[in-house]
UniProtKB/TrEMBL annotation:
Organism in which the protein naturally occurs: Robertkochia marina
Pfam families (alphabetical): DUF418 (PF04235)
Transmembrane segment boundaries: 21-39, 59-82, 103-136, 142-160, 207-228, 248-269, 281-304, 324-343, 355-373
Residue ranges of domain DUF418 in the record: 228-392
Keywords: Membrane, Transmembrane, Transmembrane helix
InterPro entries: Bact_Transport_Assoc, DUF418
Protein name from the UniProt record: DUF418 domain-containing protein
Lineage, uppermost ranks: Bacteria, Pseudomonadati, Bacteroidota, Flavobacteriia, Flavobacteriales
Length: 400
């Protein structure tokens, strides 16, 4: 039996706050890449030597880079598991339904890459979503163990590199004819069609990063979100936040000590030049960043439950309820800001300018989301996703 659309249920506001927070952090990081692609990023960043730009770069390194992708991935796994559990308990969970739902998300991701920005993760999440019907029936111990094993394994990049060699796939050739200057020319002065072609080449050249680095983190966090969903953590978040208080703070302190040592000490050591040692050092840094992201979620939850900060954090829920729409909208705004179809500001913004721009844009997204949700139940892309999933035109406008 195919699934029927469920009516609007009482939302858990804190989860929407988490999603809004994740969308903010994702944009703060993404706008840096939109402003200067990986091909030219190191050289471009060297010119910004003012104290405010140096401070902005340190803030990004310490508090943003590699922290919000794990959060985004965990929340995706949690959200998918919460939906799947409802259908599983009603004996209406089917692979065909989830396959269709994830296929539509995959198409969103492909269109995102082609039309707006090459740094999409939706297509990756869609592939992970297909695992839901497999793992939702497995034991909690197995799911948590797999999550930890996937996260801790340090040699994905080496294995993936060997796999690409076997397949005779060479991602580095796709941008071999481009330099930082030629990319700058295409983005700032090229036609939209030239921009689409460049985005395809960028995506293909970044496949090792996507599947050798980001995909394992996403899979680990997806499984962790699935584990939390199966254990119904969302139904008693207050108790869970209090229960993990001491261990999460202790682990965060330890990993932050390592993060600081890595950034300022370890990379300068002779041992860091050894390939295996460098791989392990970097892996520990990634683990530390993931822990920091999870600490953010715990801290937000604690502030939400036990302090007056709830009023300050509450507006995040509007952006979180429209996370898909806002995620895609950020890329559209990036296209307008940086490319020839808009203001051609590519490689003109300093670190502190991109940081402030991200905060400003997100502030408008929060206000826009709040206004939209006064009149509609779902964001526009959330509604479209729903309609295609259920193969019917579903109501969206709120009834007075």
């Amino acid at each position: 039996m195919d699934n029927k659309p469920t009516g609007t249920t009482k939302r858990i506001e804190l989860l929407d706050v988490y999603r809004g927070f994740a969308i903010l952090g994702i944009f703060v990081v993404n706008i840096v890449i939109m402003n200067s692609t990986f091909l030219n990023q190191d050289e471009f960043a060297q010119q910004w030597t003012s104290p405010v730009d140096q401070l902005s770069e340190r803030i990004l390194q310490l508090f943003f880079y590699t922290k919000f992708f794990p959060i985004f991935s965990l929340l995706f796994g949690l959200g998918i598991s919460m939906q799947a559990l409802k259908w599983y308990e009603k004996n209406t969970l089917s692979f065909s339904f989830f396959a269709r739902r994830m296929f539509i998300l995959f198409l969103f991701g492909i269109l995102h890459i082609l039309l707006l920005w090459s740094g999409d993760v939706l297509h990756l999440y869609a592939l992970l979503g297909l695992l839901t019907t497999v793992f939702i029936k497995r034991s909690n111990t197995l799911i948590l163990s797999l999550s930890l094993l996937v996260l801790l394994f340090p040699f994905y990049d080496t294995i993936f590199e060997q796999l690409l060699t076997l397949l005779n796939f060479q991602p580095e050739v796709y941008l071999s004819d481009h330099t930082g200057a030629s990319v700058n020319e295409v983005i700032r002065n090229g036609s939209y069609a030239e921009g689409v072609k460049l985005r395809i080449l960028e995506y293909l050249s970044n496949i090792p990063m996507l599947f050798g680095f980001l995909a394992p983190v996403a899979l680990s966090m997806f499984l962790l979100g699935l584990y939390l969903g199966k254990n119904r953590i969302h139904q008693n978040i207050e108790a869970f936040i209090e229960r993990i208080k001491k261990p999460i703070i202790l682990i965060t302190v330890i990993t932050n000590i390592y993060r600081v040592l890595f950034l300022f000490v370890f990379t300068k050591l002779d041992i860091y030049q050894m390939a295996i040692a460098r791989t392990l050092f970097v892996k520990l840094m990634v683990l530390s960043d993931v822990v920091m992201g999870l600490f953010y979620l715990w801290l937000l939850g604690w502030l939400w439950q036990y302090t007056p900060w709830r009023k300050i954090l509450s507006p995040l829920k509007y952006a979180g309820r429209m996370a898909l729409t806002n995620y895609i909208m950020q890329s559209f705004i990036g296209l307008i800001l940086f490319s020839s179809v808009g203001f051609s500001l590519y490689e003109t913004m300093s670190p502190h300018q991109t940081f402030l721009t991200a905060l400003l844009v997100f502030g408008f997204q929060v206000m826009g989301s709040k206004i939209w949700l006064r009149f509609f139940q779902y964001g526009p892309l959330e509604w479209i996703w729903r309609c295609f999933t259920y193969k019917k035109l579903l109501p969206n406008k709120k009834v007075a």
